[in-house]
Amino acid sequence: MKEQQRTDWAQVAANPRFVDLHRKKVRFLFGWWAISTIIYVIFLVCANLAGKLFAWPVIGDINFGYLAILGLFIYCWFVAGFYAFWANKVADKITVDLIDELKEGGMLR
Amino acid sequence: MKKLIVVLALAFTLLTSFTTLVPSPAVAGPESYIAQTVVGQTAKAAAPAQSAPAKVEADRRITITIFCIFIAFTLGIVYWAAKRTTTTGDYYAAASSITGVQNGWAMAGDFMSAASFLGVTGLISLFGFDGMMYAIGTSFAYVTLLLIMAEPCRNVGKYTVGDILSFRASPVPVRATMALAAVLLSVMYLVVQMVGGGKLMELLLGIPYPWAVVFVGILMMIYVVFGGMIATTWVQIIKAGLLMGGGIVLFLLMASHFGFSPRRFFSEVVSSKQIQSWVQLVLLKQPVAEPGFEYGRRFLEPALLQKNVWDQISLGVGSFLLGVAGMPHILMRFFTVPDAKAARKSVVVAMILIGTFFVMVTLLGLGAAIIVTPQSISAVDKGGNMANLLMGQLLGANISPIVGDVLLAFLCAVAFATILAVVAGLVLAAAGAIAHDVWTNIIRRGQASQREQVMAARITSCIVAIVSIVIGIASETVNVAHLATLAFAIAASGVVPAVVFSLFWRKMTTTGICAVLLVGTVVSLVLVLVSPNMTYPKFVADGAKVQITSLEKKVADGQTLTDKEKGDLEKAQKTYEANKDGTSIMGLDRPLFPLRNPGIVSAPIGFLAAIIFSLLFPSRREEEKFDEMYVRQTTGLGISQLTET
Fold first, then answer.
1. For A97, which residue in chain B has the nearest alpha carbon?
2. Bridge partners, B537 (sequence order)
3. Residue B582 backbone zone (phi > 0: left; psi -120 to 50: alpha; other: beta)
C-alpha cells in the first residue's frame, strides 16, 4: 500500500505498453459502442418511418420487422461474445505483460 | 443464534398476520372463466369477446404454499448470509466473492422483473410489434453496461457510485450530490415497483392494497437489513432461475400448441379473427373495415403504440441505452465480483440470459394474443399485465384443470418473488448512498469502525424501506409510471455523464461532476413535469365534451338513451365541469415539452454541463491524479486494496 502511494503514476501512464493498451481499449470499446448506438437508432427510426420495409413478409407470414428484432438480439450476443473473446485474447495479455514489466522494473514493487 | 430467532420470529408473525388478513376467497371458479375465454376465442364473429372474465383468480392455497416455500427458503439464505455479514465489504459488496456467472444471473435478475415478464408480454399481446421495442431496448442497455461501465467501475469503485466519482475529485461535495441523486433515483424506481407489486397482489390474491405493500416492504426489509448484499444477490439469483424456468415451461407449452412451427405460429397471428378486430376497432379505431386491409398483419408492424419517432428515439437512447447504465442498483452489482474479468463475464452471462428471456417474451406476447385474445387480456387488466398468467392457466388446463391451477399459482409466486428481489436491490443501493457516502465518509470522515458502519447501513436500510412503504401506500391512486421515466432520465443525463467523464476525461473536475448531477436531475425533472406524462384537466374536459356532444346529438336525433348512456352523460358532464378550468400540477393548459421521455434533450444538456463547468473551473490537483485513476481503471492495479475489506 505504501509503495503504491509512492508509485509515479505519470511514468506508468507514459509506458509504451500502457499507451498501447489504453489506445486499443478505448478504440475497441467506444468504437463498438458507437456502432451499436448507430444500429439501434437506425432501427428505431426505421420502425417509425419505414413501415413498408418492416411489413415485408420474408418467410411465410414472418415479416422483416420481427426478423430485424431477432437480428438485433443476435447482434447484442455477438458484441458480448466478441468483446469477451477480444479482451481475453488481446487486452488481458497486454495487461499481464504490462504489470509484469512494471513489477520487474520496481515501479510498483 | 440470536439473529436466527429474530428472523424466524419476524417471519412467523408476518406469515400469521398475512394469512389471517386475507379475506375469505370469493372465487368465481376457474372453469367458468376458461369456458368463457375459449368461447370468446372460437367464436367466429369479429366482435370483441364481451363475455371475458373480470379478473384472474389464482388458486390461493397453491399460490400461498408455493410462495411460502420461496419465503422460507430465502429466509434461510438471509440467516446464512447474516452470519457471514460482519464487515462493510460483506454488507455492500458480498465481500466481492460472487463469481462472474453468479453475478450474471443476479444482473439478469435485476432486469427480468415483473415489469418485463408480465408487463412487456402484456404490451406485446395488446400492441404487437411496438411492445417488442421494450424487449430489444433492454438488450442494448446491457451493451452500454458491458462496453463502457463494467470493467472501469469494478477497477476503481468500492461500494457505491460515489466511490468512483470521488477517486480524484473533492470527496465531500461529490459524494453529497451523488448520494442525493442515487437516493432520488432508487426511491423513485422503488415506489414504482412497490405500487406495481401491491396492485399485482391485490389483483391476484385479493389482498387489500395497503397490506400487500406492507407485506412486500417488510420482507424486503428483512432481506436487506439482515442479509445485506449476500442475501440480496442470492435471492436475485434464485428468482432469476425461477423466472427463467417458469418462462421456459410456459414457452414450451405454448410452442407445442402450435406444433413447434414458427411459420404456423405467425400465420395464426395474421389470421386470428380476434386480433384482426382488435387492431381494426380498438387500435386503429376504424368502425368500418377497410376492404382488403390485412389487420392481422398490421399487428406485426410498428406504430400501433408509439407513433412519434422522436419519442421512440428518446425512449430507446435516453431510457435504455444510457439510463439503465446509470442506475445505482445495477452499477452496485459490479462491486460484488473480485475483478474486471469477472465483471465482464457477468455482463456477458446477463446478456445471454436476458436475450434468451426476451426472445421468449416476444413470442409469449404474440402467443397470448392468439390464445387468450387481446380483448380478454385487456378486460382483465387494461395494461395487459395478466397476459402470461391467463395463458399459463389456459394452456395448463388443456392438459388437466389442476395443471392449469398449479401453473398459474407458480407464475404468480414467481411474479411476487421478482418484485421482492428487485426492491431489495434498490433499498440496498439507496442505503449505501446514505450510509456509506453521507454518514461514513462525510459526517464521520471515514473514521467509523466496521461495526459502526455496518450498523449504520442496517439502520439506513430500515429507514429507506419504511419510507418507501409509506410512499407506496400513499401512492395507491396516483399514476406513478412517469416516476420510472424520470428515474431513467436522471440516470442518463446526470449519473452516466458524471461517471463516464470522470473515468475517461482528464479535465473533469469536482465542479463538473456536481454540476452535471444537479443539471441532469433538474432538467429531467422539469421536462417530465411539463411533458404529456402529467394530467392536463383541459384534455380530460375535451374528452368528456366529445362524449357529451355525441350523446346529446343522439337525443337531438330523437333517440332515447339507455340507462347506461344516461349515467355516462351525467358522469361526462361532471367530469367536464370539474376539469374545464383546471390546469396541470405546473399550472399549464397543455404540455410545453412534446415528448414523454426527456432523455434525448436532457442527456445532451447533461453532457454539455459536464464539459462547460469542468473547463470553467479547472483543477490542477485533480488533473494530476487522473494518471493514477486512468492506469487503475484500465489495468485493475490496486484492486486488492478495494476488495480486501
1. B635
2. none
3. beta
- Inspect the interface and report whether the beta carbons of A69 and B344 lie closer than 8 Å: no
**Which among A69, A99, A108 has CB closest to B362?**
A69
Q: Outline where B400-449 has alpha helix (H).
A: 401-432
* H-only helix segments in B475-509: 481-490, 496-504
Per-residue pLDDT tens over the stretch B148-163: 999 999 999 889 999 9
Q: Is A72 on the interface with B (CB under 8 A)?
A: yes
Residue B302 is nearest to which of A29, A65, A70, comparing CB atoms? A65
Q: Is B491 helix (H, G, I), strand (E, B) or coil?
A: helix
Residue B104 grid coordinates: 450474471
- Grid cell 397453491 — which residue? B62
HSE, side-chain direction, 13 A CA sphere, residue A41: 13
pTM of structure: 0.86
Q: Give the Cβ contact number of residue B559 at 10 Å.
A: 11
Instruction: Say if residues B135 and B362 touch (Cβ distance below 8 Å).
Output: yes
A95-100: average pLDDT: 90
* Tens digit of each residue's pLDDT (9 = 90 or more) over B548-588: 888 888 888 888 888 888 888 888 888 888 888 888 888 88
Nearest to B602 by CA among B513, B528, B515: B528
Query: What number of helices (H) and strands (E) belong to chain A?
Result: 6, 2
What CA dihedral angle connects B233, B234, B238 and B241, to 10 degrees? 50
Is B523:B493 a contact under the CB 8 Å cutoff? yes
Half-sphere exposure of B228 (CA within 13 A, CB side): 29
For chain A, the distance separating the N- and C-terminal CA atoms, rounded to the nearest angstrom, is 10
- For residue B609, the cross-strand partners are none
Contacts of A72 in chain B (CB under 8 A): 136, 139-140
- Distance between CA atoms of residues B249 and B407, nearest Å: 9
The ipTM estimated for the assembled molecules is 0.91
Query: Using CB atoms, which residue from A4, A21, A48 is nearest to B312?
Result: A48
DSSP B375-409: HHHHHH-TT-TTHHHHHHHHHHHHH-HHHHHHHHH
Q: Does residue A59 sit in helix, strand or coil?
A: strand
Partner B contacted by A104 (CB < 8 A):
no
Q: For residue B633, what is the enclosing H or E element?
A: helix B626-635
